[in-house]
């Protein structure tokens, strides 16, 4: 099968940063689905794992890619949720080979049924960010579906992939008021289109930006990027007994600042369930099916923003560089392996 892999921590524009290869076809066992990959999207985790490889290189190829949509071609003996021919979408697991390959193995319990109303490219934009956003809202912050009218949620860096679906889920499934941060006119327009009721510029201190907008303190905050730069302002912006969640890897933050207000801190990594094989592993299958139903009902839209062409090393290097630039809004998708 065709695959794209990395061997060393090289800059995204280096011709060897990601390489086209031919690898042996994998074989499904246990709860595995063998998926014929039709489209993938690129996330910051792809770039972080590439840059986390040994600088001197390694012998074994590292196939990246943690978002995919495709068709089930074979199943392992323990599979009960899918059968060959089913269209699926998923975000995979960081302790297994990634989805940048023609054929890919994924545990059925972290895959969902692809929305019937979307093409493969539109679908591939959503799984990883949808899982992350859902777990942030309902598993980490403990929001209740249908609740939270009169409460406020601040989303820092809301125009990216996670923020783009998180805004939609929060608006569709709760009564909370969403305050998004974005710094450019085009990203501010993007988050408003997705449902944010208020938008503030994160280039100024967030507590001041909220006050200037007449919004005051918030009940919940989710920081998706540059948490260390915003941390003190986030503490100031949260109400006493508020909740703060984050997904990035900030420079050291002084959590002692949270004590005076009894603010709780919650970290989200959507790979935790698959990495540790938690008893509730199938929760990701269930939530992906729920999001799929919302897409087909017209309640959620794809967050695809850029289509970078076929899945090959050159296009993936370009996508990695774009993600690393910090200029992306929504998701970057690649589709098909060509002849």
UniProtKB/TrEMBL annotation:
PROSITE patterns: QOR_ZETA_CRYSTAL. Its main location: cytoplasm. Residues 16-334 form the Enoyl reductase (ER) domain. Keywords: Cytoplasm, Metal-binding, NADP, Oxidoreductase, RNA-binding, Zinc. It is found in: Cytoplasm. InterPro entries: ADH-like_N (IPR013154), ADH_Zn_typ-1 (IPR014182), ER (IPR020843), GroES-like_sf (IPR011032), NAD(P)-bd_dom_sf (IPR036291), Quin_OxRdtase/zeta-crystal_CS (IPR002364), Zinc-ADH_QOR/CCCR (IPR051603). It comes from the Bacteria. PANTHER family: QUINONE OXIDOREDUCTASE. Belongs to the zinc-containing alcohol dehydrogenase family. Quinone oxidoreductase subfamily. Homotetramer. This is Zinc-type alcohol dehydrogenase-like protein. It comes from Massilia haematophila.
């Amino acid at each position: 099968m065709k695959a794209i892999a990395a061997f060393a921590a090289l800059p995204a524009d280096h011709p060897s940063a990601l390489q086209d290869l031919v690898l042996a076809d994998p074989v499904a066992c246990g709860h595995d689905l063998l998926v014929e990959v039709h489209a993938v999207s690129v996330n910051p985790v792809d770039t972080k794992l590439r840059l986390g490889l040994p600088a001197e290189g390694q012998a074994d190829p590292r196939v990246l890619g943690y978002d995919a949509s495709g068709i089930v071609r074979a199943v392992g003996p323990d599979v009960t949720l899918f059968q060959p021919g089913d269209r699926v979408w998923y975000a995979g697991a960081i302790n297994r080979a990634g989805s940048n390959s023609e054929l890919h193995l994924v545990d059925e319990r972290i895959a969902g049924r692809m929305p019937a109303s979307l093409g493969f490219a539109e679908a591939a934009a959503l799984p990883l960010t949808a899982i992350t956003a859902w777990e942030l809202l309902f598993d980490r912050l403990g929001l209740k579906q249908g609740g939270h009218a009169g409460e406020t949620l601040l989303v820092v860096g809301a125009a990216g992939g996670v923020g783009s679906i998180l805004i939609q889920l929060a608006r569709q499934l709760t009564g909370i008021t969403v305050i998004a941060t974005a710094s450019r006119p085009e990203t501010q327009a993007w988050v408003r289109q997705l449902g944010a009721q208020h938008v503030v510029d994160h280039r100024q201190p967030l507590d001041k930006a909220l006050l200037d907008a007449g919004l005051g303190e918030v009940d919940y905050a989710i920081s998706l990027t540059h948490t260390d730069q915003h941390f003190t302002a986030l503490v100031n912006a949260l109400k006493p007994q508020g909740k703060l969640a984050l997904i990035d890897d900030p420079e050291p933050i002084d959590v002692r600042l949270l004590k005076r207000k009894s603010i709780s801190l919650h970290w989200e990594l959507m790979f935790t369930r698959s990495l540790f094989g938690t008893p509730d592993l199938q929760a990701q299958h269930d939530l992906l099916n729920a999001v799929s139903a919302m897409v087909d009902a017209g309640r959620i839209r794809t967050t695809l923003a850029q289509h970078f062409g076929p899945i090959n090393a050159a296009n993936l290097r370009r996508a990695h560089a774009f993600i690393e630039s910090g200029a992306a809004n929504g998701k970057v998708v690649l589709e098909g392996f060509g002849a």
